[in-house]
Each structure stands twice: as C-alpha cells, then as structure tokens.
Protein 1
Amino acid sequence: MMKKLIALVLCVMMLSGCVSAMADEADKTNLGTLEVEDAFTLQCVLPAGYKVDVMYDNPDYHVAIIYSEDESKPQMYLSVAFDELLADVERLNDLDDEALAQVEQTFREEDEVEITHMYTSHGTKLLMVKEVENGISYVDFYTIYLGYQIEIVMNYGTGFEDRQITEKQIEMAVDFLSDLDFIPAS
C-alpha cells in the first residue's frame, strides 16, 4: 500500500512539472543561436520580446547582444572566446575544486560578488556571478565548452548605469539559460 501511495505522489509531482514546463514554454517565443566556427552551435529559447544580434565574429572570439526594444528590460552581452589554457577542458563541469576556485577568484578580483552554481536542463554547469557591493548592476553567467569561455553579462548598458537588476529579471535569465544547449559540429 505504501509503495502505491509513493508511486502516486511521484506521478502527481511529475505531471505538475510537465504542466509548469509547458506554461513556461508559452512565454518563450524564439530560438537564439550562435555558430562558433566548426566547433559547435550555442542555442537557447529566448524570452518573449528578445532578439540576438551578432556584433563581432571571428575564429577565436564572438560577441552578440541579446536585447529587447523595451528599454525597461536589461540587455545581455554574449561573448565566446577560445582560451589555449582551457583547450583540454570540455566543460566547466570537468574542473576539479581547485581549478573551479581559481576561475571563481577571477570574478572576485574586481568587485564584491556573490557566486552560485546552476545547471542547464542539458547538464551544463553555469556560474552565476552577481555584483553585490552597491546593489545588483550586473549579473554574469559563465561556463566553458570545448576550451571556449562563454559569458552572458546582463546589465542595462550605456546611459542606464544607475538602474539595478531585479531578482525577477535574474529569474527570467536563469529560466531562459536553463535551455542553453551546445550542439557539436558534425
């Protein structure tokens, strides 16, 4: 009897998760992609009203902006850069504790930050770095894939430096980044 009850509870939890996921998908309208040479394609489903524009693209460095025409919403700068020191690292997930601590230290050198770890639905580990010194003026999401450092920095950009990122906006970014996927080149 107890096993049946546990199975029923698990079924209800899984169904509610599916319904929640479908509701979340209704808010996401378009797929953003960035092709990185012959290595991989980076893709995720963007929040409603956001677009991707590639600003700079060469073999070792790529920059795109993820933005909304609504100036009340923050923009996100995506940078992808190959790092020879990380050439043998397939994913951020593969770093040991010492190497991960060294990566985290690079974010702590300039500002007072809070660093947390999150995972995409595809299992990719992301560092979420929030500036906490004078409110949250930026949030940096960081990972590694095939020796490339991938960063998505959310802020308001030039002319809006006085605006702060809200927890709701961070949740929006976490939500769409949970779909972040790397598709290896064939």
Note: The helical segments are 2-26, 97-108, 167-177.
Protein 2
Amino acid sequence: MITFISGGARSGKSSFAEKLATEAYQQNNENKLGNSKLYYVATAERSDGEMNERINRHINERSGTWYTLEVPINISSQLENLHNHDVLLIDCLTIWLNNMMYKKQADLPQLLEEVTNWIDISIRKQLQLFIVSNDLNEGMLHKDYFTHQYMYALENVHHFLISESDAAYQVVAGIPIQWKGERE
C-alpha cells in the first residue's frame, strides 16, 4: 500500500505520517506478516552542526520500534534491502527531489523513473510505503529559472505519486484531509 501525505511547513504532516505508519506496523504484527520492521527514511543530509543536532533530536523523539535510514539520494537500493511487509516512511520528498536535481542533475524523466522504481519494489515486496512531501507555493509562477524547474518537477512527481497511491492526504494546521482512498 502506498500513501502520499503533503502539507505546508510545520503543518503536522510528519507526525500524522508517523501515526499512520506506526498503525500499519502494529497491524502487520497483529496479522503476523513475517518479521515486519518499521523504517524512517530521512532524506536530509548532515550538512552542519545544526542539521546534525536536528536529525539526532528527531531520531531520539521516535520510539525504539523505528529504524532510521539516512538516504539522501538512492532510495530504491534501500527498498531492495528490506524484507517483505516492512513499513517505510520517506520524509521528505521535497528534500530528496532537491538532492536529485542539484547534486545528481536528475531531470524529470529520471525523477519519475526513480519514483516508479519505489512503487514497483513496494508492490513486489508488499511494503507499506508512506511518502511525505511539502506543499510549496501553490499556483505561483517563479521568475527564477531553477526555482521554476524545481516547482515544475515537484508538481509532476506529486501528480504521479498521487495517481499511483492508494491513499492521499493533505495536512492543514494539524488536521488531515483525505483526498483519495477509502475513508477511515
């Protein structure tokens, strides 16, 4: 199952995604689906002391059932290493996209190919995948070329992921709004 969760900065989207992922993990254990594990894929890099402190704080805030994987670029290879029925939260797509575009010079077809790989691996391995992303400047055009390219790529990746997801949520001021999928 693939769930897409978006929202603005500090909207509560990550907390909501963690709640959904934890519930899926607990349900896997209740249903005895192998040795399911709960993974948090952090896409941010430890670029300086402040970021290192922030990442460590987030790791310490999560319960001991979470395994943290720091994966700024190649998420597909990490998915291949997981076991069937594992639960995975990727946080966040916007940072991963930035890493891909500006460190790997990936273009939109390459980005969509990588995200397609995530979906294919998740289906094959029966992973439960929760993908968190930011809502950025909806509807605003940007004069800066690189910002425009980034926003265009993010919009296209969002559209693709939502079309492939089983459920899609937007979190606004801590309130999740379900746009796609069976209502809870």
Note: The chain has one domain: 2-180.
